[in-house]
Amino acid sequence: MRKTILINDDWKFVKENVGAEKVFVAQGEKINIPHTWNAIDGQDGGNDYYRGTCWYGKTFQKPELYSSDQVYLEFRGANSTAEVWMNNTKLSTHDGGYSTFRVNITDALEEENELVVSVDNGPNDRVYPQKADFTFYGGAYRDVYMVIVSDSHFDMDYYGGSGLQITSEINERTAVVNLKSFITGDAKAVRYSIEGVGDLEVPVVDGVASGNIKISEVHLWDGVEDPYLYEAKAELLKEGNVVDRIDSRFGCRTFSFDKDKGFTLNGRPYPLRGVSRHQDRIGVGNAITKEMMMEDMEIIKEIGANTIRLAHYQHDQYFYDLCDEYGMIVWAEIPYITEHMPNGRENTITQLTELIVQNINHPSIFCWGLSNEISVTGVTDDLMENHKTLNDLAHSLDNTRPTTMAHAFMLEIDEPLVFLPDIMSYNLYYGWYLGELTDNDTFFDDFHKKYPDKVIGLAEYGADANPRLQTETPERGDYTEQYQSVYHEHMLNMFRERPYLWATHVWNMFDFAADGRDEGGENGINQKGLVTFDRKYKKDAFYLYKAYWSNEPFVHL
Ligand code: GCB
Q1: Cα–Cα nearest to 320, from 359, 267, 285
Q2: pLDDT tens-digit profile of 421-459?
Q3: How far is the CA of 163 from the centre of ligand 1 (A)?
Q4: Distance 133 CA to ligand 1 centre (A)
Q5: What is the predicted ipTM?
Q6: Ligand 1 pocket check: which of 133, 334, 373, 464 to mutate, most ligand atoms within 8 Å of Cβ?
Q7: Which of 215, 303, 334, 535 lies 20 to 30 Å from 91, alpha-carbon distance?
Q8: Catalytic site residues?
Q9: Cβ atoms < 10 Å from Cβ of 118
Q10: Nearest Cα residue to atom 3 of ligand 1
Q11: Is 372 in the pocket of ligand 1 (CB under 6 A)?
């Protein structure tokens, strides 16, 4: 039976590129994971934070195993390239700093083991992201697990997917739930069950087991009002015994993106008004805890948002879980951002595959984001081809959700790239970086007039505000809380008259580190958050949104 052991504690860390064999000799600093080496220097401005290779090491005794057991290490996120070594043998390399990856260490195990992991956040031309307005904190900054399974098991190599994929089709009050697993080894059958509904045994054919369970009178997953989750279980059977088991939650819902009504959920218009989230926070960078994630979610709930764009990369599994539980409508995306790199095509493909395969069961996810502002340095044939590949890939891995993109304002609305994804959005900053606030209105009016049949949304909009800067005469570019509020009040009123927008996402819920910045009285921080980087101070614009979005009466003292 599967055993999952958290192995975050008691690692050694060396902040220089010493090489695998020297990590323990060098007597590294004792640390626990989650860990980043840029917690401070990635947040202090100057764009001079350490980007390179550092080393993590850990010794451990061989766990108790049956002879045919398989042992995997599971890293939930190491930014951005990780190499895993066991007892001086390199076992694998993973490119991409925000997705889960697994390594089979079974054959390398000895009685006493030295596990060594190099993590590199240095620049290169093949792994995304390389250029963007946020700090690329290096490190093994999410949980690490050891997973022990018997030789027959639900697939651990399937891009780090859970080995169980759940989709549902809903007709009237009945849902037909498809459960599908990928299996390693020679087990012959899988028993699926949905708690409170029923179960079903199916054979394994060519490494795949698939079956449908019907739910009559389905309880829908219905957004923030009623995010109902079902519990599914898959048991792998060999000679009558259960040899592996995985659990997954899922939700049943229908939705559409309509050119006139915007987003509809379970048959009714469901206006999406929301925020974007970067994961990092002051002092710890991206090495955040579950409590911090929960705090973020509570703040997002308090403001009354019903959708989150999880920018600009794959977020922690725990955060997607929270989105399921809180009923958030999620835009999930890969960090294919700012500048297309011809040598990075392969990486966009693996990152998108990992995003989708690892997250396909989350009912909160409603679209897959292919890229962000990728056209700022021009739309080349190579970029276009790559997007076609990604768009097709997303459809082939998941035919239940649309693809989307966040376009830069300078991408002409007639460019073929605009309409490449199923639904699309623009990032607009009129009234902040350039132009007038009313240019936002005009942009959408012109677009809608020209393309009334196309579904469009607003993926980003915002203005920086430093709470230490206050004024009675707010003006664009002054970094005051007052201007931030003027800006957002205009946008809120603009949305009211344009119900066709499929979603709007404030940039950003929280201030975040962008070490290249030095402006508005702060170093290294993008201050477009409605809440400060330490989550301690809610800016005036936070309360503005709360007044517009939340049903609760409140007094802001
Ligand atoms: C954008 C980017 C985002 C930046 C934001 C800004 O369009 O997509 O990553 O942080 O603008 O604040 O300038």
Answers
A1: 359
A2: 999 999 999 999 999 999 999 999 999 999 999 999 999
A3: 35
A4: 6
A5: 0.99
A6: 133
A7: 334
A8: 373
A9: 23
A10: 133
A11: yes
